[in-house]
Amino acid sequence: MDEKIGFIGLGIMGQPMAGHLVDAGYPLAVYDVRPEAVAVLTRSGARPMASGCEVTEWADIVITMLPDSRDVEEVYLSKGGVLDGIRPGRLLVDMSTISPQVAVKVADEAASRECAMLDAPVSGGETGARNAKLSIMVGGERQVFDRALPIFGVLGKATYCGKSGAGQVVKACNQVQVALTLIGMAEAMVLGKKAGVDRAVVLDVLSAGYAQSRVMDARGGRLVDGDFQPGFRSHLHLKDLNIIREAARAYECCLPGSALAHSLYTAMQANGWGDLDHSAVVKVIELLSNSAEGA
Fold first, then answer.
1. Which residues have a Cβ under 8 Å from the Cβ of 10 and sit 6 or more positions away?
2. d(CA 13, CA 4)
3. Hey, which residues does 162 pair with through a beta bridge?
4. How far is Cα 110 from Cα 76, in angstroms, rounded to an integer?
5. Regarding beta strands 116-119 and 91-94, do their DSSP bridges make them parallel or antiparallel, or are they unpaired?
């Protein structure tokens, strides 16, 4: 494998993703603001770098996995950032979940430096990252997507969504659907409980019928047990819902269900539940229904 890859952002998702690339035989350089995160990948065979700009100078392909839109703008556009002095021909792949408008802005700036860029947010959470089973939604030029496809194949399954920003739009659509499915499941559980029906029975029946979903399969049992150890933290889903609100304004969409989800996840944050799994939205429904004495 001749192309050298740089990876910036070694958090819960980024660290296992970078690890898969090392295991696949790619020459890999890594950078994160936390030296301990870099050390983990260094022990696996990656090359440590002192800055994002240093990663860019070394790598042919640069991948970023960052928390939010402002972080992506900072890493790419600031003095000493990825695009500061970048050589033409580099491929940039941002796998963060950010605003589609910011994705387009950064891609346009990369194009002005004669570099191609893809927005490639993922779904699947920490489990998907560790198992290399991520769903990857990609925006940008089709031929650029084709160039990156072998790398995406190491991390999961990639789908080409369209022009720059389209990957982020599809990720926003995904997060709308997941949030509303979680809220529907939470309401069903609270209604059943208040009517005296065991939650496990409600889950069993719904899972066998038309209401069944992958979200229910993944989170239903934990909701019944009141186990809200994070697979995907609620404050991160609230971040995504903020992105969805921004996209709704930009594209003039009326998304009333998403507005409700935003209010409920804001209430989670206000009640100190932001670090719980996003299925813990049931706690807000319980609170509003005077049914918060336990799962």
1. 18, 30, 31, 32, 34, 37, 38, 40, 41, 65
2. 20
3. 139
4. 9
5. parallel
157 is catalytic: no
Global pTM exceeds 0.90: yes
Average pLDDT over residues 29-44: 94
In whole numbers, what is the pLDDT of the chain averaged over residues? 95
Asked if 45 and 26 touch (Cβ cutoff 8 Å), the reply is no
Residue 293 has pLDDT above 60, yes or no: no
| Active-site option among 171, 193, 239, 283 | 171
Tens digit of each residue's pLDDT (9 = 90 or more) over 170-195? 999 999 999 999 999 999 999 999 99
Distance CA 251, CA 171 (A): 15
The residue behind tokens 């009326």 is 254
User: What is the per-residue pLDDT across 43-97, written as a single tens digit (0 to 9) for each?
Assistant: 999 999 999 889 999 999 999 999 999 999 999 999 888 998 799 999 999 999 9
Give the Cβ contact number of residue 2 at 10 Å. Answer: 6
Taking the C-alpha atoms of residue 115 and residue 125, their distance in angstroms, rounded to an integer, is 29
Which token pair is 144?
Answer: 């650029």
118 DSSP 8-state letter: E
Contact yes or no for 56/50 (Cβ under 8 A): no
Largest CA distance in the chain: 66
3-class state of residue 222 by DSSP: helix
All structural domains of the chain? 5-164 (3.40.50.720), 169-288 (1.10.1040.10)
200: tokens are 């496990």
